[in-house]
Write a structure and sequence with these properties.
Largest sheet: 5 strands, parallel
Order of helices and strands: HEHEHEHHEHEHHHEEEEHE
Oligomer: single chain
Number of helices: 10
Structural class: alpha/beta
Strand content: 15-25%
Radius of gyration: 21 Å
Number of strands: 10
Helix content: 40-55%
Shape: globular
Bound molecules: xanthosine-5'-monophosphate
Low-confidence stretches: none
Distance between the termini: 41 Å
Mean pLDDT: 95
Strand order of the largest sheet: 3-2-1-4-5
Length: about 325
């Protein structure tokens, strides 16, 4: 077994050489821990689980089974990227589950934010457990736990087990190869493992996904407007040098319509709110000063390209008084 805790004198992994040394050490440790047994991993496409997958593919290849659950609340292109990177390029054993209808049916008509979160979290575990039961001989469960998760759970700030909550009869041994790393170190390691830059350096994305950006009861048309407007925002930020510079940016489509004019006719359609914030720890946040011309271009593209939208607003609220997400 590798280190259980981060050694006090551990050098921060900031260079390719240090990352390579860590990767080599972990591959050896993973081979020892797993032997010829099978490992299961919930692969979201986020940085931590992606790095864990890439490490395990190098260490035990086809003994790793990755399960990617699409809850229908992912951003545009995300499930496709997970399939292309892990199944097509890295030749991983990947089970892709499109559970969109299942999640959206359960969420239909649910307006309370915490109930929405609980449904999404609960359903995720159920879908993942169902897939796990279909597989024979799994003995290990891999998780993208990182060092701050362990520190926070020790301080009682939050529970760190991503897949904690699996049914009791599924008591797998945990495999947590990045648990002594800080987030910036996970990114350096991910780059050396050959993961794409937009996966390694991606902005934070909440577990309940676009569900929290479709305030109130989620409907498929509003969700589609969130997904499409978010894709335009990300594309324009990348083109204009803001990707990697602004900490988090996204769109929200609240549950109200306003009057407008489109193609010379009265329209009554959704509003897209753009949010772009900077922070170091997400406890407080300031608003990004988006150039006015870029803002005008975003409004033009979103109102022309996103179905059912006739108005775009920019949220100038720092945290506090607003939180980063809307619910
Ligand atoms: P707030 O909205 O509280 O968000 O200012 C702070 C940071 O946390 C993210 N966030 C979440 N992440 N599950 C997550 O995994 C959640 O339920 C959740 N809610 C907020 C948010 O995107 C921001 O980066």
């Amino acid at each position: 077994m590798a280190n259980d805790r981060r050694p006090d004198d551990m050098v921060r992994i900031t260079t390719p050489e240090l990352a390579d040394a860590f990767i080599e050490e972990q591959i050896k440790a993973l081979k020892e821990q797993v032997g010829d047994k099978k490992v299961l991993l919930a692969l979201s496409g986020g940085v931590d689980s992606s790095v864990v997958a890439a490490l395990l593919i190098k260490a035990v290849g086809q003994q790793l089974v990755c399960v990617h659950v699409n809850h229908g609340l992912l951003r545009k292109g995300e499930p496709e990227q997970v399939i292309s990177v892990f199944r097509d390029q890295m030749k991983a054993n990947l089970v892709y589950v499109d559970a969109t209808d299942r999640f959206l049916d359960k969420l239909a008509g649910v307006t309370d934010p915490e109930t929405k979160r609980k449904i999404i979290g609960g359903e995720f575990i159920e879908v993942f457990a169902e897939e796990a039961r279909k597989l024979d001989g799994i003995e290990f469960l891999a998780q993208g736990t990182i060092w701050p998760d362990i520190l926070e759970s020790e301080k009682g700030i939050k529970a760190h087990h991503n897949a904690g909550g699996l049914p009791e009869d599924m008591n797998f041994e945990l495999v947590e190869p990045v648990k002594i790393l800080f987030k910036d170190e996970v990114r350096v390691v991910g780059e050396r493992l050959g993961l794409p830059a937009n996966m390694v350096y991606r902005q934070p994305f909440p577990g309940p996904g676009l569900g929290v950006r479709c305030p109130g009861a989620i409907t498929r048309d509003r969700l589609e407007a969130v997904r499409e407007s978010d894709a335009i925002l990300r594309e324009e930020f990348a083109k204009n040098g803001l990707e990697g510079k602004v900490w988090q940016y996204f769109t929200v489509v609240p549950d109200f319509k306003s009057t407008g004019i489109k193609n010379g006719e009265r329209s009554f359609e959704w509003v897209v709110i753009i949010r772009a914030v900077n922070t170091t720890d997400a406890m407080t946040a300031t608003v990004e000063n988006i150039p006015f011309e870029l803002m005008q271009h975003l409004v033009d593209r979103i109102t022309k390209e996103v179905k059912g939208v006739n108005r775009v607003l920019y949220d100038f609220t720092p945290k506090p008084s607003g939180t980063i997400e809307y619910e």
